[in-house]
Every structure is written in C-alpha cells, then in structure tokens.
Amino acid sequence: MAIFQIEYRSDLLDMDRNMNVILPDLSELAPGETLDDIPVLYLLHGMAGNHNTWLKRTGIARLVRHTKLAIVMPSTDLAWYSNTQYGMPYFSALTEELPRIIQQFFPQISSKREKSFVAGLSMGGYGAFKFAFLTERFSYAASLSGCLSFTGMKPTDLGQEAYWNGIFGNLDLFETSENNLMIAAEKQVKQHQKQPKLYAWCGHQDFLYQANLYAVEKLNALNYDLTFESADGKHEWYYWDKQIDRVLEWLPIDYVKEERLS
Question: What is the largest CA-CA distance in the chain?
Fold first, then answer.
C-alpha cells in the first residue's frame, strides 16, 4: 500500500488543490491479483475537515491494506460539494475535473462506473449522495451521519445565513432546487438515469437522525436500492471509524481486512 500526498492544479477553481490517494501494493494482494482496472472510492470529509481528515481520524489505510481498492480523498473546503453562488464550481471540479486528473496520475485506477464509488460523513454524506444523484459516474454511494435532508431544522442552524446564501443562493428556493437531495433523486428517477446503490448509517443520538429517517423514507418511495442501518451513536468520529469498515464490506469488492488474515 502506498499513500500519495498530491498538490494539483484545478483549472475550474483556478487554484492549487490537495488530495491524498491510497493505492494498493501488489505485494500485499492475493496471488494472481494485478494492479490494473483498480476500483476506486472517493472518500469525502465533513465541515470541519479536509483531504487529511480520514487518514488522521480513522484506520482507513490499515483497513484496505490487503484489498484491491484505491481511495481518493479530496477537499471541498466548506463548499458543500457544490457549485457555489460566489463562483467556485467545487461540484464540477470534483465530479468532472478530478477524475480526469486521477486518470492522468494513476491510469491503473478504473474509470468505469461499476468500479467507481463515493462515500462521506456529515457534509461529505450529503456530497456523496449529491455526486451519485447528479452524475452517472458512481455506482455505489454511502453516507455516514449525512446531512441528507434539512427537514426539522434550518440550514442556518449550522451556520450564518450569509454563508448559506453564498453556497446555495436564496434559501427560500432551496427546497425546490437540485441542492435538495430529494429533488435531485426525483430528477434522476424521472429522467430514467442509472441509479446508484445507496447505503446510509446514522446514530440514534445524532442530531441528523430524524433527517436521515425522512430521507430514507423518500428514497425508498422512489424505489432506490437503499440499505439503511442505525444504532446508538452520536455525531462523532468514534462511530464513523467503525462504520467505514461496514461501508467497505458493503461495496462490491473483495474486501480483506488485515485482522481477518491468518
């Protein structure tokens, strides 16, 4: 396994950006495995994080050490994986430009939809489902304690109104816009686009639990292939570190944890 810390140029954002990439090592894979057409998981951070957060706060590198899976960990700053109203197209930069850059740096990483996955926590859970609903690039999308809906609260509960207006525009129009994940999901279904398989987890004591229940009900009504799991837990890394293991088990890969090896 190798971990790459990369600074690259984003033409869409007109700025230098950073990402971390975990790449499998042939010596740590099963006999007969090859390092070509490698499945890839884009792993998205939450509001307080950046491209380093998953590496610092979880055992993700250890967990995938013996698994043929690449992990791409980009940063969206505080832009909610969206094309902001202040002219910074983070959504396009991460869903269109970044995969092309990954192919340039790592041509052995697959660009096939069936081998491209996305997951995230909190704001990153929102981003993961947004990527999956508004593009046809990802076949699996997972959310851990994701902000899948703002039902029962206002966006301003998480920040000042000026901040949210900068991200999403007029908040009075949010509910009917594609920034509302349920509207994005409905659009995908109505346009008969390829639907991703979905996984969501949220702790019972998490302030986003009711919002997750609401989103799950809506997505089930739209006939998405959705696995929803919950247990006691708060909006904390202790739980996300455990649940990323469950996400890896759910993905269509030969997941081999180090602890399972003889």
Answer: 57
In the chain, the amino acid numbered 127 is: G
Spatial CA neighbour of 78 closest among 53, 99, 42: 53
pLDDT tens digits for 154-175?
A: 666 777 889 999 999 988 898 8
Query: Phi and psi (nearest 5°) for 119?
Result: -150, 160
Q: Are 100 and 108 in contact (CB under 8 A)?
A: no
d(CA 83, CA 79): 8
Contact 13, 90 (CB under 8 A): yes
Q: Which of 108, 59, 54 is nearest to 245 (CA)?
A: 59
The neighbouring-strand residues paired with 119 are 43, 142
pTM as predicted: 0.96
Q: Are 219 and 248 in contact (CB under 8 A)?
A: no
Alpha carbons within 13 angstroms on the beta-carbon side of residue 40 total 27
The tens digit of pLDDT for each residue in 183-193 reads 999 999 999 99
Tell me how far apart the alpha carbons of residues 183 and 186 are, in angstroms, rounded to a whole number: 5
Domains and their CATH numbers in the chain: 2-260 (3.40.50.1820)
Long-range (24+ apart) CB contacts under 8 A made by 132-135 are 132/196, 132/198, 133/181, 133/184, 133/185, 133/187, 133/188, 133/196, 134/91, 134/95, 134/178, 134/184, 134/188, 135/95
**Residues 6 or more apart from 97 whose CB is under 8 A from it?**
10, 11, 12
The pairing of strands 70-73 and 15-23 is: antiparallel
